[in-house]
Design a protein that fits this description.
Blueprint: E1 3-7, H1 12-28, E2 33-39, H2 43-47, E3 54-58, H3 68-71, H4 73-80, E4 86-89, H5 94-103, E5 107-111, E6 120-122, H6 132-139, E7 173-176, H7 194-206, E8 211-215, H8 217-220, H9 224-228, E9 234-238, H10 243-251, E10 255-259, H11 262-270, E11 274-277, H12 283-286, E12 295-298, H13 321-324, H14 328-342
Parallel strand pairs: 1-2, 1-4, 2-3, 4-5, 5-6, 7-8, 7-10, 8-9, 10-11, 11-12
Length: 343
């Protein structure tokens, strides 16, 4: 049996955006055995969403520190024994290209402009407007002629987290006021001000709508003010959930109001409608895929430099005017329309 290795080690949203391409790979290779190498953080989510026969987890810290290349050597040698005839690398950094050369004796395909350890490369930018899911799909041989499948999360296999309420009454609205962290940077440019999220929580409470606040442990470090004055109907789960726990909670919510973040992509995978505040990033490129009427974007108006990422550099902006230009009234109006339609 032919064995194929796909490598996606970090970035939650990127893993989810790579799933349509992996579904294409699965469809084109029905009799092959596909292995996905990912991090121990992402492995549980990948195990219930990726079309892989085997998910292999690597320690999350293996790519950190001065010895990150050497730390991958024992794993690469172990994987080589699996006899992969093809390998697909969904990263563009040199240590992982060298890792692929050791791990995969067959053809090694990646993205970029130079082979450097790979057998073949596919340009990351095609020269045409496209979603990142389509960029990943091109890596796996997709030409745009076939429709990409919509990835699904096996929600039935996720148990209710310990101590979590059943949400058996009115379905809550979830809010994700954090995010902005990626594999290479941690920036506040993608975050709508937390006092505006606080105002949304007050408005939801005034309408008798329960709410849930989600976020990572890192988010908790700067959301202190918001969390200190949550309404009575609001449940604080910042830093209290795994990725699968968050997916379980989101699947019980009628709507997620969020920044451009990993939780936006998890909500899309769980089938939960999203209302996302976008500023420096482009929803046509990195919004929930595939686009649908249940995933609504709030965009800045009159800010000529938005979106700026990745063309001009998100870290060069001193004040993120694009995010500041979006008012609470605008987001609340969109949320009201979505909630009315969901009822």
């Amino acid at each position: 049996m032919e064995r194929i290795l796909a490598v996606k080690l970090y970035a939650i949203g990127d893993l989810i955006m790579s799933l349509p391409g992996m579904l294409f790979l699965r469809r084109k290779n029905p009799s092959s055995e596909i292995h996905l190498l990912t991090s121990s953080l992402l492995a549980p989510l990948a195990g219930l969403s990726a079309p892989a026969d085997r998910v292999i987890a690597m320690e999350d810290g293996a790519l950190k520190g001065g010895r990150k290349g050497l730390s991958l050597l024992p794993l690469a040698l172990r994987l080589r024994r699996n006899g992969y005839s093809r390998g697909y690398l969904m990263h563009r950094i040199l240590p992982l290209r060298l890792f692929m050369r050791l791990a995969c004796a067959g053809e090694r395909i990646g993205q970029g402009t130079r082979t450097a350890g790979l057998s073949r490369v596919e340009p990351f930018e095609s020269g045409q407007p496209e979603h990142d899911s389509q960029r990943y799909a091109r890596l796996f041989g997709w030409t745009g002629e076939e429709e990409l499948e919509t990835p699904l999360l096996d929600l039935e296999s996720i148990p209710r987290p310990a101590g979590m309420p059943a949400f058996s009454g009115t379905a809550p609205v979830a809010l994700a006021p954090g995010g902005g962290r990626s594999s290479i940077r941690n920036t506040n440019r993608k975050r709508w001000p937390q006092d505006r999220f606080s105002r949304l929580l007050e408005l939801l409470d005034g309408e008798g709508i329960p709410s849930v606040v989600l976020g990572s442990t890192e988010d908790g470090a700067f959301l202190g003010e918001l969390r200190s004055r949550l309404p009575e109907r609001s449940l604080d789960l910042v830093g209290a959930t795994t990725l699968l726990d968050a997916a379980w909670v989101l699947s019980r919510c009628r709507l997620l109001i969020t920044n451009d973040s990993s939780l936006m992509h998890i909500a899309g995978l769980a089938g939960t409608p999203t209302l996302t505040v976008f500023g420096p990033t482009d929803p046509k490129r990195i919004g929930v895929y595939p686009p649908s009427a249940k995933h609504v974007h709030v965009l800045p108006e009159g800010v000529e430099c938005s979106p700026c990422h990745p063309a001009r550099g998100i870290d060069e902006c001193p004040e993120a005017r694009c995010m500041l230009s979006i008012t609470v009234d605008t987001v609340w109006e969109r949320a009201g329309k979505m909630l009315s339609g969901l009822r």
